[in-house]
Give the backbone structure.
Amino acid sequence: GCGRLAPASCSEEPKTVTNEEYEALHSEIERLRPHRVESAFGPIPASVKHLETLLESAAQEDRPPLYTLLAGECSHARNDRLHLQVLRRCAAELPDDPLSHSSLAFGLALMEGDRKESVEAGRRAVALAKAQNVLVRYCAGDLARVAPMVDDYEALHHATEVLVDDAGSRRLEDCGYEFDFLGRIDRTRFDGDLLGEFEALAEHYGRR
């Protein structure tokens, strides 16, 4: 995936890159971050350029963790244009990866307030997650956060339905229930029965 890091319980580990190589890459990124190089997006951290170079020759299985690191460096740089370009490219290169589309949805809502594209990416993430039976709660939770940001209560209703229907499901790649978006729901615009079901989940699992 790319963009926001998933919680430890559902984050991706590098496939063919060894732990030692990954730790060495982290160290190199930290060393390069304070230095700036010119780019089409203005001055950017040298760490971004380094990761872009690595991606040019990376094996397909090594690209998701590299994109996660790259998006993180773009976030550090506070360069929204560059960050969104990386998120879009990641989702395009990894079309079957739910986390990549979920990260794009969140980035679009946060940095551009783009209702249509962010909700489309969020719904795609949820559909992929359900089809693959991975990261369902993570992606639905992200869509539930994105939807109020762009004032799309139909998408919020869909995300909440997925979360309620998923109650009791167990899977290796996912995170627990999170209820931080509950306080941002306008109750006058939301299905009362569905909201009641989700609040019952919050009581059962504990609000976080």
Remarks:
- The mean pLDDT is 88.
- The longest helix spans residues 115-132.
- The first strand starts at residue 36 and ends at 37.
- The CA atoms of residues 9 and 133 lie 15 Å apart.
